[in-house]
Design brief:
10 strands, three-stranded antiparallel beta sheet, alpha/beta
Length: 189
């Protein structure tokens, strides 16, 4: 039984479902936020779990200061860990416990800088403390305003992000996200 080329059916192309489309759009927003520090990106949803869902898998160690979020993340198969062992940390930086956790997240080493954590926190983007950013991905300098987190965050970050070591910081305000990679220099205004 031979089929001619004209009788062959078209190849089957996988079609993304709604969850995959949302996860891809979330991942895309997060990566562009890191590539262009200080630029606000839109997330497809106003839900921190959507961020976790786009990034974590069974090989990730995750810390979440919010018990409800931790429970939802654990359901993905990711391993819940202490802040000191986390690959991804979802912190409440407006609390003393959140600041203590930020002081504990891994920063990697000069040999393995990739072992530094990725930190996510809620903040108010566009209002609050003025910051001047410079470094890779920024054309000269850019000024932003961030509220809802104490100035201690910037002091901890300055002490712990000694490039190439450090952590990436994503600040999330509803469906907006701003990325601050460890390579970004931050001047508190």
């Amino acid at each position: 039984m031979t089929q001619s080329l004209n009788q062959r059916s078209a190849p089957v192309v996988p079609v993304r479902n709604a969850a995959e489309t949302r996860a891809n759009a979330t991942y895309d927003a997060l990566m562009w936020a890191l590539a262009r520090p200080g630029t606000i990106r839109q997330l497809p949803e106003n839900d921190p779990f959507a961020v976790a869902e786009a990034l974590v898998d069974r090989e990730c160690r995750v810390f979440a200061s919010d018990a409800g979020l931790a429970e939802r993340i654990a359901a993905t198969g990711a391993c819940l860990a202490s802040a000191a062992q986390a690959d991804h940390a979802f912190l409440a930086l407006d609390t003393p416990a959140g600041l203590a956790a930020l002081d504990d997240v891994p920063t990697g080493s000069h040999l393995y800088p990739d072992e530094g954590a990725t930190v996510f926190a809620s903040a108010t983007i566009g209002h609050g403390r003025g910051l001047r950013l410079s470094g890779p991905g920024i054309d000269g300098k850019v000024e932003i305003r961030i509220g809802g987190i104490p100035d201690d965050v910037w002091a901890i970050r300055s002490d712990r992000c000694l490039y190439p070591t450090g952590f990436e910081l994503f600040l999330i305000d509803g469906d907006q996200v701003l990325g601050l990679p460890r390579s970004t220099m931050i001047e508190v205004l």
